[in-house]
């Protein structure tokens, strides 16, 4: 099989780990650092936005965002992300990975800054402006998913490809952690500079005017890491697989990779012509694609959808969950900046102890254990720990038991990231043909964001107490946090079952997985698990 493959692709598959691999990880990874920071930092400041723009000093409780505003602020960036994943995923297969890569980053930089500059004459106009820029911020973030994954998979060697793609995605954990740390630092600095009484002591004075700067600075700082890597993105050459297999330019592919690998690579235009003539140039909406990759796309998209329902509902509404179990004090007992501090401290602790370690366990073990088993065990353990939180929920809410709840809650994040949250990002970049790789990854990722939107909007309403006396202002009674956790456990169990549709790609070249390595009938589609089970 290797003899029929282009030398440039064989050289990439067999290349030792080199400096360009780490450069690609950093350049692509900083985009994901920014993605996570921008998507999740909003959850740290929504309570503050409510106190600033929807305050009623005569109310016994601090101001909060109305339900429709809270849903929009939390979810609008996810809607933009979904649209961006589909659009830029498709564009990456049409114009090339590199051509589109800089666009997404610049859009993220501009919209991060603009989000912090959301001004208006009324609360409604401020929120509308904020939502507008966060939608387009999400649109840019969406493009980063298929492009970063595809670029890294096409640059990597087949022995450590999983670890390289996982390392890019692992920067998401550092982005979440950075959001918490930045918020901790800023809230501490402003609290010390502008002390304020608790809301129940003096409602009007509990939110100092300078608090309006805090959320703006937090959002605007998301532009910094993306801006720092823009130059390096523009200098990355197009991937050899796109140049050779999609643009059909063997000479340019060999020239680009000769510079990257610092070795002479033969162009082999005749062999490329032979491969193109022997290959099948089927499109996405064809029976041939459905036969070869239909179940694979269904598996990657559905698994990503299910994990994101659970992952984003947990991440975006940690503050509500921690408040419901009493880990964060009642809002009326704190001033505005103290509430921000306590929410960010809780999220930082979870990120540090559960989220970040999970990502790096995946990096170190994915090319040893394999994608299939990491995803399967991850979904299984998330189901177990969700049920462990839900079944004795009233036990966890009693004083003295909060630490146990936080530990188990952190373990669900650990197994999400040492599990399906990472593998659903990696596998779609490995198993589809080069001409459809970015598009199929974008479709899978967009399905995930559809799940995230359901998690974000649905959890906001569903987790409301069943007792009308304990429902947040403006909301109707929901099913409560306990039953919401049961729903999330069910999603994880379904994800466990869907995993059996996804092929194992450990140790195989991209062309072996996609069927491009051999045009003989059926050979490219016979994907076999380590156990010997043939899938399709």
From TrEMBL:
GO terms for biological process: phosphate ion transport. InterPro entries: MFS_dom, MFS_sugar_transport-like, MFS_trans_sf, Phos_permease. Keywords: Membrane, Phosphate transport, Symport, Transmembrane, Transmembrane helix, Transport. The chain crosses the membrane at residues 20-49, 69-88, 100-119, 163-186, 213-232, 349-366, 372-391, 403-422, 442-463, 484-503. The keyword Transport applies. It is a multi-pass membrane protein. Residues 24-507 form the Major facilitator superfamily (MFS) profile domain. GO terms for molecular function: phosphate transmembrane transporter activity; symporter activity. Residues 511-536 are annotated as: Disordered. It comes from the Eukaryota. PROSITE patterns: MFS. Coiled coil: none annotated. PANTHER family: SOLUTE CARRIER FAMILY 22 MEMBER (PTHR24064). This is H(+)/Pi cotransporter. The gene is LOC125554286.
């Amino acid at each position: 099989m290797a003899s029929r493959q282009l030398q440039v692709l064989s050289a990439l598959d067999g290349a030792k780990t080199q400096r360009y691999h780490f450069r690609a990880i950093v350049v692509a990874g900083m985009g994901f650092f920014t993605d996570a920071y921008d998507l999740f930092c909003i959850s740290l400041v929504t309570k503050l936005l409510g106190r600033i723009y929807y305050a009623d000093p005569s109310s016994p409780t601090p101001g909060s965002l109305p339900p429709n505003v809270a849903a929009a602020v939390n979810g609008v960036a996810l809607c933009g992300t979904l649209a961006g994943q589909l659009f830029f995923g498709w564009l990456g297969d049409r114009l090339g990975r590199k051509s589109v890569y800089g666009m997404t980053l610049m859009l993220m930089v501009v919209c991060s800054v603009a989000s912090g500059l959301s001004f208006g004459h009324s609360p409604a106009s401020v929120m509308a402006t904020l939502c507008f820029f966060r939608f387009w911020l999400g649109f840019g973030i969406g493009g980063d998913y298929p492009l970063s994954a595809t670029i890294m998979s096409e640059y990597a060697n087949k022995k450590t490809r999983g670890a390289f793609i996982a390392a890019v995605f692992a920067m998401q954990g550092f982005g979440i952690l950075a959001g918490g740390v930045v918020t901790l630092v800023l809230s501490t600095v402003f609290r010390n500079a502008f002390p304020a009484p608790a809301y129940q002591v003096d409602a009007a004075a509990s939110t100092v005017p300078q608090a309006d700067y805090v959320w703006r600075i937090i959002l605007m700082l998301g532009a910094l890491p993306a801006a720092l890597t823009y130059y390096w993105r523009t200098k990355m050459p197009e991937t050899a697989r796109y140049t050779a297999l999609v643009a059909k330019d063997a000479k340019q592919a060999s020239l680009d990779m000769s510079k990257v690998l610092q070795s002479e690579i033969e162009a082999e235009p005749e062999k490329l012509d032979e491969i193109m003539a022997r290959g099948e140039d089927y499109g996405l909406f064809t029976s041939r694609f459905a036969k070869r990759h239909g179940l694979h796309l269904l598996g990657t998209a559905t698994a990503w959808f299910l994990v994101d329902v659970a992952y984003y509902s947990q991440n975006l509404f940690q503050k509500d969950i921690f408040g419901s179990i009493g880990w964060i004090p009642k809002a009326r007992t704190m001033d505005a900046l103290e509430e921000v501090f306590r929410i960010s401290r809780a999220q930082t602790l979870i990120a540090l102890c559960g989220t970040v370690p999970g990502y790096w366990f995946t990096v170190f073990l994915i090319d040893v254990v394999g994608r299939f088993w990491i995803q399967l065990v991850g979904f299984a353990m998330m189901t177990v720990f969700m049920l462990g939180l839900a079944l004795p929920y009233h036990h966890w809410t009693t004083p003295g038991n909060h630490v146990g709840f936080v530990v188990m809650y952190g373990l669900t994040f650990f197994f999400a990231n040492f599990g399906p949250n990472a593998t659903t990002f990696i596998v779609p970049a490995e198993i589809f043909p080069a001409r459809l790789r970015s598009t199929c990854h974008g479709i899978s990722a967009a399905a995930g964001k559809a799940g995230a939107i359901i998690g974000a909007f649905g959890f906001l309403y569903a987790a409301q107490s069943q007792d009308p006396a304990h429902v947040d202002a403006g909301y109707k009674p929901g099913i409560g946090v306990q039953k919401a956790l049961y729903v999330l456990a069910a999603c994880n169990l379904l994800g466990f079952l869907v995993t059996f549709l996804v092929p194992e790609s450990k140790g195989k070249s991209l062309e072996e997985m996609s069927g491009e390595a051999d045009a003989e009938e059926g050979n490219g589609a016979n994907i076999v698990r380590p156990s010997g089970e043939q899938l399709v």
